[in-house]
């Protein structure tokens, strides 16, 4: 007995000793570790609109002229203190004085103009240009020591919001090529990048704003959501910027937030039977969104009525989601069939693997519900590369009727970043064409204030009630895990940036 | 032997050349990299401009000519994504995978020799039966599930090991443990089988009749003969890990060649795809040549042919 007890004690001690010997290092002091889903391939601030780059550099290493308030989409000052429209085509921005870049250069009108020109240089495929300024001819010039004018060939009434994407880098930054050690004006210096392992940022003592609490931030990346969640749980990391709903199982650490994504099935309304409005109505009536919430989709998702989330200018709050009414859907299908609409024709449902958690299960559920009311649906799940072949113009002439699983992200403050692309006759991903909606898109794009908002709303209403280019699904939520030793509340922006200066310690 | 090896190296070089050409054309059949590189919302004009600038809309034979021209200057191309020479990226990743493969295969091979030999000593004995069940289970174990479960147990619940990452000894334990399981299970089966045959051979009976000690009979006389099929299987397993221990690299955050290859294929980063396949092919062919040499050392008949 004694021997048994002794061996047990020895074994326990050995296990404890083994455990303590192997214990991993935890985040401590005023340093934090952030775990993100993938390694950045480049960290040039000109790519900061890509979430993997933005989470590291945007508003940490480099700052933008303006900032978009995640709560209501309003535009607030950052490196620009004020702005005004001097004529229909020109905006003037006043640049904050007394600021230095991390390499000691002054922030002034000349350096800002140089930075804008670098971002818009066609020799460099930077995402700020290709995503936001691809169709805009723009000339920036210094009109004073700290004043710039931005002139465009067509009116750009939301130029201040667009400048919320324009990261400003030191004038010494190399042209036409991505950099691996960006220099900006932000509260953190880009310190090290060990490929495959980590990126570190260090507090910039010469920062013009309030001194942040966090001294050093280390970014690491793990593809698996379960691993990211485990890292925060064990104390190896402080923030897991994005985790899957299945791993968000600790109410003390996990936050859910609107992530500005909207999921839908895009209907190709140019192809029969989808060119019949009764068919499109029936599809929306056939989907039991309540049944999907809290099962395949997380509990917090909100039924969509339009492509933009409520905090975006142009969202129409008067629209109501489609009700679940399979009986009415069956009637509409029957009526369409009686009029010769080929409702039995096979419709391909093009899905994308991993576009959001449970994406395959979601498509299987949609397939079952659409089949239930009489449609002939065939699912085709694809990897991103294959799925993209169907998403944008030019579309194949000989294509058949199709629904495409899509998800759209707009946290840039205005519906303009969604509407043209998705619903204009020439929109890169539009499969619909309505002259009135086109005219409203053009009108709203050029308008300001209430007129802009109301014009967007008219377009949203017509799309929702009369055109029905989507099988509407949800405004989505994301999940983050935050270590209780810090104070950080994820917002709609967390998808695209993590402002370390906002992190406080408990 | 030298002649045989020269022939083997020459045929390997031809195979690599053929593979390289095939990868060039197959990669381009997957589509335009611009579709994946540019944001989904990029205007059509920007997409066209991108393809023109990078020559992706040129006829494929012109792209191939350009590629050969660069290759003749020792240039394997530039990563579209990482904006760095593709070969530099690959040469950073391959040592990570090779070190994982080397450690895992050494442990698996030594463990399998020991367990397999002991199991073969008394076929159907208790040790043999236990090792058979365990090794069969290990050989069919799902890596992904084991890795996640191991993290939850050893990192989250017990707090003994780090969840992931690269570092000292603690960081190696789980990735190596996961990598060892399958080859170990497989190799135990192979060692057991070939050792049972070897132990019932005439030369073993002769050795025993001459009074040679049992340990020497098993680990010297029988094992040397029983190792030939083991080397073949071990070589295959080592090549499989060298080809990319994708699951382990992905879950534990080890930046190896497997993950790099998958990512570059998914992103249509052609230069990195080509460079990583070239380097991996060289590694695998080298492993095959090493296996041939090991065969020759162990089996004098091959040496003398």
Q: What distance separates the N and C termini of chain B?
A: 8 Å
> Which descriptor suits the 3D outline of chain B?
flat
Shape of chain A: globular
The CATH class assignment of the largest domain in chain A is: Alpha Beta
Query: Considering the protein shown, what is the CATH homologous superfamily of the largest domain in chain A?
Result: Dipeptide-binding Protein, Domain 3
Order of helix and strand elements from N to C terminus of chain B: HHHHHHHHHHHHHH
What's the total helix number of chain A? 14
Oligomeric grouping of the chains:
heterodimer
What can you see in these coordinates?
The complex is a heterodimer of chains A (506) and B (305). Chain A is an alpha+beta fold and 506 residues long. Chain A folds into 3 domains: 26-42 and 186-253 and 483-506, 3-Layer(aba) Sandwich (D-Maltodextrin-Binding Protein, domain 2), CATH 3.40.190; 62-178, Dipeptide-binding Protein, Domain 1 (Dipeptide-binding Protein, domain 1, Alpha-Beta Complex), CATH 3.90.76; 258-477, Dipeptide-binding Protein, domain 3 (Roll). Chain A is built from 14 helices and 21 strands. In chain A, the strands form 5 sheets. In chain A, strands 1, 10, 11, 12, 13, 14, 15, 16, 17, 18 and 19 form an 11-stranded mixed β-sheet that branches. In chain A, strands 5-6-8-7 form a 4-stranded antiparallel β-sheet, with helices on one face. The radius of gyration of chain B is 24 Å and the shape is flat. In chain B, 79% of the residues lie in helices and 0% in strands. Chain B has helices at 2-29, 34-37, 44-54, 60-72, 86-121, 126-139, 143-157, 169-199, 202-209, 214-242, 246-252, 257-266, 270-298, 300-304. Chain B has 305 residues and is mainly alpha-helical. The chains are: A alpha+beta (506), B mainly alpha (305). At the A-B interface, helix 1, helix 4, helix 6 and helix 11 of A face helix 2, helix 3, helix 5, helix 7 and helix 8 of B.
């Amino acid at each position: 007995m004694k021997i048994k007890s002794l061996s047990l004690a020895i074994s326990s001690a050995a296990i404890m000793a083994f455990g303590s010997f192997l214990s991993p290092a935890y985040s401590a002091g005023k340093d934090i570790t952030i775990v993100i889903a993938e390694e950045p391939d480049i960290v040039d601030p000109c790519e900061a609109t890509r979430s993997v780059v933005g989470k590291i550099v945007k508003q940490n290493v480099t700052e933008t002229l303006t900032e978009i308030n995640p709560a209501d989409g309003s535009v607030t000052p950052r490196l620009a203190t004020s702005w005004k429209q001097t004529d229909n085509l020109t905006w003037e921005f006043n640049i904050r004085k007394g600021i230095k870049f991390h390499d000691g250069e002054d922030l002034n009108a000349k350096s800002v103009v140089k930075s804008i020109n670098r971002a818009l240089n066609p020799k460099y495929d930077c995402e700020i240009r290709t995503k936001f300024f691809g169709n805009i001819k723009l000339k920036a010039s210094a009109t004073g020591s700290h004043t710039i004018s931005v002139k465009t060939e067509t009116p750009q009434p939301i130029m201040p919001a667009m400048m919320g994407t324009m990261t400003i880098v030191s004038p010494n930054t190399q042209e036409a090529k991505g950099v691996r050690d960006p220099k900006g004006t932000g509260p953190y210096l880009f310190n090290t990048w060990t490929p495959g392992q980590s990126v570190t940022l260090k507090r910039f003592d010469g920062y013009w704003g309030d001194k942040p609490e966090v001294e050093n931030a280390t970014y690491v990346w793990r593809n698996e959501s379960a691993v990211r969640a485990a890292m925060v749980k064990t104390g190896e990391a402080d923030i897991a910027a994005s985790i899957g709903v299945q791993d968000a199982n600790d109410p003390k650490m996990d936050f859910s937030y609107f992530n500005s994504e909207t999921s839908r099935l895009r209907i190709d309304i140019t192809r029969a039977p989808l060119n019949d409005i009764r068919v499109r109505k029936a599809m929306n009536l056939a989907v039991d969104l309540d049944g999907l919430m809290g099962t395949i989709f997380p509990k917090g998702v909100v039924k969509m009525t339009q492509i933009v989330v409520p905090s975006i200018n142009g969202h129409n709050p008067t629209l109501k989601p489609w009700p679940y009414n399979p009986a009415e859907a069956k009637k509409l299908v029957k009526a369409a069939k009686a009029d010769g609409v080929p409702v039995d024709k096979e419709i391909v449902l093009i899905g994308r693997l991993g576009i959001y958690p449970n994406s395959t299960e979601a498509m299987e559920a949609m397939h079952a519900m659409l089949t239930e009311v009489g449609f002939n649906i065939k699912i085709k799940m694809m990897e991103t590369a294959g799925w993209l072949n169907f998403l944008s113009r030019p579309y194949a002439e000989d294509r058949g009727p199709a629904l495409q699983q899509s998800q759209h992200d707009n946290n840039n403050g205005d519906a303009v970043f969604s509407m043209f692309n998705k619903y204009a006759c020439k929109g890169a991903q539009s499969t619909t064409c309505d002259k009135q909606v086109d005219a409203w898109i053009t009108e709203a794009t050029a308008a300001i204030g209430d007129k802009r908002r109301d014009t967007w709303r008219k377009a949203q209403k017509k799309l929702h009630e009369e055109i029905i280019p989507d099988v509407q699904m949800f405004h989505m939520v994301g999940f983050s895990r935050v270590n209780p030793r810090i104070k950080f509340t994820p917002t709609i922006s967390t998808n695209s940036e993590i402002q370390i200066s906002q992190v406080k310690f408990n | 032997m030298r002649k045989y090896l020269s022939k083997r190296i020459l045929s390997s070089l031809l195979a690599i050349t053929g593979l390289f050409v095939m990868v060039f054309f197959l990669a381009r059949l997957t589509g335009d990299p611009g579709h994946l590189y540019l944001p989904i919302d990029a205007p059509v004009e920007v997409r066209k401009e991108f393809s023109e600038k990078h020559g992706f809309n040129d006829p494929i034979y012109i792209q191939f000519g350009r590629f050969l021209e660069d290759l003749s200057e020792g240039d394997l191309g530039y990563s579209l994504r990482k904006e760095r020479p593709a070969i530099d990226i690959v040469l950073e990743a391959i040592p990570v995978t090779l070190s994982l493969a080397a450690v895992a295969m050494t442990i698996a091979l030594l463990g399998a020799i020991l367990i397999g030999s002991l199991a073969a000593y008394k076929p159907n004995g208790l040790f043999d039966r236990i090792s058979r069940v365990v090794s069969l289970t290990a050989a069919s174990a799902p890596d992904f599930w084991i890795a996640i479960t191991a993290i939850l147990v050893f990192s989250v619940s017990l707090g003994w090991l780090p969840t992931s990452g690269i570092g000292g000894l603690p960081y190696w334990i789980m990735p190596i443990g996961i990598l060892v399981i399958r080859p170990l299970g497989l190799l135990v089966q192979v060692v057991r089988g070939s050792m049972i045959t070897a132990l019932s051979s005439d030369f073993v009976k002769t050795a025993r009749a001459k009074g040679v000690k049992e340990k020497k009979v098993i680990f010297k006389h029988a094992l040397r003969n029983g190792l030939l099929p083991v080397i073949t299987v071990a070589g295959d397993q080592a090549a499989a890990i060298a080809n990319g221990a994708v699951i382990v690299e992905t879950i534990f955050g080890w930046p190896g060649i497997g993950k790099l290859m998958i990512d570059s294929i998914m992103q249509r980063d052609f230069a990195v795809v080509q460079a990583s396949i070239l380097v991996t092919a060289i590694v695998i062919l080298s492993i095959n040549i090493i296996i041939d040499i090991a065969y020759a050392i162990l089996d004098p008949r091959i040496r003398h042919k």
